[in-house]
Amino acid sequence: MAFLALGVTLLLVLLLARPTGLYIAHAFKDEQTKLDRFFGPIERGIFKIGGIRRDNQSWKKYVFALLMCNALMIALVYIIFRTQAYLPLNPTNVPNMEPTLAFNTAISFMTTTNLQHYSGESGLSYLSQMIAIVFMMFVAPASGLAACIAFIRGLGGKPFGNFFVDMVRAITRLLLPLAIVMAIVFIALGVPQTLEPNAIAHTISGGEQSIARGPIGSFLSIKQLGNNGGGFLGVNSAHPFENPDAISNLLQILLMLLIPTAMPFVYGKMVGNAKQGRVLFVAMSMLFIVMLGTTLAAESTGNPVLNSLGIQHDQGSMEGKEVRFGMMQSALYSVVTTASETGAVNTMHDTLTPVAGLVAIANMMLNTVFGGAGAGLMNVLMYAIIGVFLSGLMVGRTPEFLGKKIEGKEMMLIALTMLMTPFLVLAPSAWALFSYSGTISNSGFHGLTQVMYEYTSAAANNGSGFEGLGDNTPFWNITTGIVMYIGRFFSFVTLLAVAGSLSAKKAVPETAGTFRTDTALFGVVFLAAVLIVGALTFFPGLVLGPIAEQLTLKP
Amino acid sequence: MGVLATSLRTSLLIMLVCGLLYSLTMTGIAQLIFPKQANGSLIHNADGVVIGSELIGQSFVDPAFFQGRVSSIEYKAEGSGTPNYAPSNSDMLDRVKQSIADWSANNPDVPVSELPIDLISNSGSGLDPDISPEAALAQVPRISQLTGIDQQQITALVDEHTKPRELGFLGEPTVNVLMLNIALQQLQAK
């Protein structure tokens, strides 16, 4: 039964990917399309009020607009967090947020990371949840999508477009309509949507229970669709209000994967060669299946130490899991949320068996098993260019990508981008282990994983955590805040610069000697580039963390 | 117009539309067409007093009630959480051993080999409303003894409260502990 559920889920993901991709490519077209008739009037209104001129920007202007706009949004949201106690819609009297936590949280949601060093029930007012968090859950993925679309346009030799127009279109044509529909579905399934304060229950065993609730349905749909992942409630989608049953769980998985799996098809469509996108989709799907298989094997075996105590353990590992999902749906969710860089959780990742924890962290380290909305595909295309470059070196030809020569300038930018992730993960991890090891809640090898997981999640803009970590301290708030910011925006700048540089070059005609990037062979080269680079960078850390923990888990 | 002015105007507009209007409109629609779910699936007793939520577990200390998952927050639903124990954490091992010892003391008729793992593990939310059907059935002998109700009758009650997989194949079969205990209480009252 459980395997049938798995098969149906993956089949649905597969069926949705291509049509969604074609729709997204269509929605961002420069010329007039049929969609304009429907969305045009609304968008023209927004452009008018926002003062948006619909001119084409150079890559520099595009990325400058993105950086400025996102920085301003961070500032606005920071102010809201710091003053929420004085603002309306605060029925549970939540106090103002502490400065370093507000800094961390504002960046966290602007970068689609959604690392949360606060607990939703007690840390944010309803107003903050709506005009700060939900607001960012729309604009953050919209900015990422815009950057990615501009990147693809540049690679394809087209004008880069206008950042504000693209960001607005991502919201009006994709995120908002789907969020509205899915919010209603989630509410029908049992997710609360109210502005009333906590409900007080007089329990049948004579006690009193105060039950936190809120406008969760509208929050949940955009949280998953935009690969944001932050929870309204502390334990995210493990909370029965944020994921009431197996159907809501399935829908959340589909939403998390919807845009990431569609992006390769967007790419294929926009560069006018569907095969280019299909190769990447198949390669990433293979990575995904390997990751999923590994996690399922580990989680179904469970914890050998507990199993040796003679209890009935057919259910697999259940610590940190909910009965309605069981081992299978929890394991699947953990792979999906880290592959899609969403970061929502329906099981506590700290409690995963070490090998399943390794898969989760590896998904984020590679950041190419689909990846988040927009940002994921940019990273994937970066690895594709690395693959082309390596192949070019092997045969002694100047490498070409989509008809443009890849030369020293592009490779320097890409090498910098590629090296940034390990630097963002390993350098602060070392610092934290050296100076702040008191914040680690699980001792031994797992403690190292806990610290590495936090920075990997921040750098990859995932946002899930090994939540035992005592991370609401100025040190963690400030360092992960900086890591999230650089992890997001550094690659936007460098990769758009690469596209800018390529688009200025003359296209070279394709010959028999051209290394084709739309073949199965290229898929293999791409996978090799991802795995070699990933393994070389992170393997030592993984051996000392999760692998050592698994090997020492003996009854 | 400068980038900054455009950013500010656009941001404030989206904040208003996607942040506030969207959330409030959804709240209005939800309260209109799904009022029960929208307010937290609350359960009322005959006098109209709220006694809990169908979706949120409660703490049952009395062994004459069915017991749910381990919860480090004792089902205090103004928050949510778990101790996040790693598989290698020795505190977790101690807790599990204690749970097993408690089980043996309270359920002398049911051997530890029939104690399902969900009963001795902390849930993800600390508020898990469910246990597995096996975990409910394993408690039947104890409850029968303490309440004086026939074992068959209680087993039938558990079967009645067993929710199969969604659509027949999604997720796991569950028993809602609170709903089961409410039914048990009603059975006792008869």
Task: Explain the overall architecture.
Chain B: It is found in: Cell membrane. Chain B: Its main location: membrane. Chain B: It holds the Pfam family KdpC. The complex is a heterodimer of chains A (about 550) and B (about 190). Chain A has 2 domains: about 1-195 and about 215-270, no CATH class; about 375-550, no CATH class. Helix content of chain A is about 65%, strand content about 0%. The longest helix of chain A is centred in the last third of the chain and has 33 residues, at about 520-550. In chain A, helix 12 runs parallel beside helix 13 (about 355-365). Chain A has about 550 residues and is an all-alpha fold. A two-stranded antiparallel sheet of chain A has the order 1-2. Chain A has a two-stranded antiparallel ribbon with strand order 3-4. Chain B folds into 2 domains: about 1-40, no CATH class; about 40-190, no CATH class. Helix content of chain B is about 45%, strand content about 5%. Chain B contains 7 helices and 5 strands. The mean pLDDT of chain B is about 95. The chains are: A mainly alpha (about 550), B mainly alpha (about 190). At the A-B interface, helix 1, helix 2, helix 3, helix 6 and helix 7 of A face helix 1, strand 2, helix 3, strand 3 and helix 7 of B.
Q: Characterize the biggest β-sheet of chain B.
A: 3 strands, antiparallel
Strand segment tally of chain A? 4
How many alpha or pi helices of chain A? 18
Low-confidence stretches of chain A: none
What spatial order of strands do you see in the largest sheet of chain B? 3-5-4
What structural class results from the helix and strand content of chain A? mainly alpha
Oligomerization = heterodimer
First-last Cα distance of chain B: 77 Å
Query: Numbering strands along the chain, what is their spatial order in the largest sheet of chain A?
Result: 1-2
Shape of chain B: extended
- Percentage of β-strand residues of chain A: under 5%
Q: Compute the gyration radius of chain A: what is it?
A: 23 Å
Radius of gyration of chain B: 22 Å
How many helical elements of chain B?
7
Would you list the SSEs of chain A in sequence order as H and E?
HHHHHHHEEHHHHHHHEEHHHH
User: Sheet with the most strands of chain A?
Assistant: 2 strands, antiparallel
Subunit structure (chain A): The system is composed of three essential subunits: KdpA, KdpB and KdpC.
Main location (chain A): membrane
Keywords (chain A): Cell membrane, Ion transport, Membrane, Potassium, Potassium transport, Transmembrane, Transmembrane helix, Transport
Protein name (chain A): Potassium-transporting ATPase potassium-binding subunit
